[in-house]
Batch of 4 targets.
Target 1
Amino acid sequence: MTGTPHHPIAIVGGGLGGLTAAAVLHTNGIELTVFEREAGRDARRQGGVLDIHHDTGQAGGLSGIT
């Protein structure tokens, strides 16, 4: 992605999707800022389960997922 001018990017939300996007963009040399509402990682209980199994997970009910 070198040689192409990019404007700085704002990512709103430091969750799984926001941080994944930030990592990919940063790896490709694109300037960005992540904005997160929580004061810090200890501001509330963190953690959860992301189950992407076809038959039992969150993706199980989405059409087009194989």
Target 2
Amino acid sequence: MINSAVKLKSASRNPIVFIIIFSFFLLIVSFLYDYLTEIIGLEYGINVVQNNEVHNRTLTYKIVLACFIAPIIETYFFQSVPYHILKEKKFENWKIILCSATLFGLLHFSNLAYLLFGFFSGIVLIVAYIYWEGTRLSKVIIVCIIHVFHNVLVLFSDLVNLK
């Protein structure tokens, strides 16, 4: 048991391991979202996935937005700012996680399914923000990298239609 805790502690200081672990968690959230929306569509004939305004944009626009602009802005406003404001007010981590993830989910609201996807993705990102303990990269940078990596994978899967 103590050996596991030491390994987890060291992972929270190794940026590559940390990014891989939290990117994996985001991929699980994405796969569950895709799976559940597909099942609902097949089982009930309901298209719960609606295209948003970004869906019909050029690839260059999507890359710039999803891989540069959105991760930076979203990490700052939906992980960093809530964390520091609520931590200053002595909120417990679980309350910070709930507030941050709710804000992140609301930002991604185009339908109920995507709101839930945003909420659970927000949980992964704020937990990464809270638990990153490395010294070479700030919490904002590490979460941005995780977010960018996830968005690149999503864009790639859309391009090759892996869904």
Target 3
Amino acid sequence: MTKTEITYNLPQKVGDYYIREANSIDHCIRANWPDYPDEYVLFNSSSRFLKFEEQINKFRDKITDNNIILSVLSSNGILVGHFSILQIDWKEKKIGNMGIRIHPNYCNKGVGSLILEWISNFFHSHGFLQIKLDVLSSNKRAIRCYEKVGFRSIENVIEKSESFTIMQKIL
């Protein structure tokens, strides 16, 4: 299994949305989403402060890495979500980390659960056995979302003075 074989199966329709591989324009759109509420300000994109060319180069660095898959969720041409599948172990069929961002206007509407269910089912259908992720321990909304779709907390770690919960889902 390779990155190309995985992304060949995109786009896919999921409910009222489409999931497809991300492109450089998506990266720039994501960088300019409106701010999250104060308690989630940490999730505002730092790329918004970069020049356009720097944003594109940052995207290219990620998209060319064979152990990263960048995808987006859209509806009627609106970028609703962005997710990164990271630290892919192709031999062991495990995903070592993943990141998800939902457009601030679409939070608390079931979109995160929808993406997580799709990611789990999609990668399971391609032979993957496990997904791990880290989440800020203070981000109770995200932790509830992950637990709702079958992720379980396996450890807590401190990194750069922040507490993270490591979660895992066996597929």
Target 4
Amino acid sequence: MDADTSLTTDLTLLASDPKLWLILTFYFLPTLLAAWNKSAALPLCFWVNLLAGWTLIGWIAAALLSLAPSKNDMAYRNRVRQAKDDFYLREAEKSLSTPPAP
């Protein structure tokens, strides 16, 4: 048995190990939830989960990111639209209430 065959056999056994898949599923659970919910923060959630998920704080941060609203969520779009309208309204009020400098 040469080294290539041994490595292939080891990788095949590793890929078929149910414990490994259970651990990976739990590790990437925040990313999977973000994908399932079509979260607006899916890419950020994935990278936080991948790079910092091994720490408890990183995993919790990714889990919180996975709760971000969906891009297609009507309430989310309405909140964004309302925030933009409020911003423009405040800016217009500022420009109208401030007298021009002589």
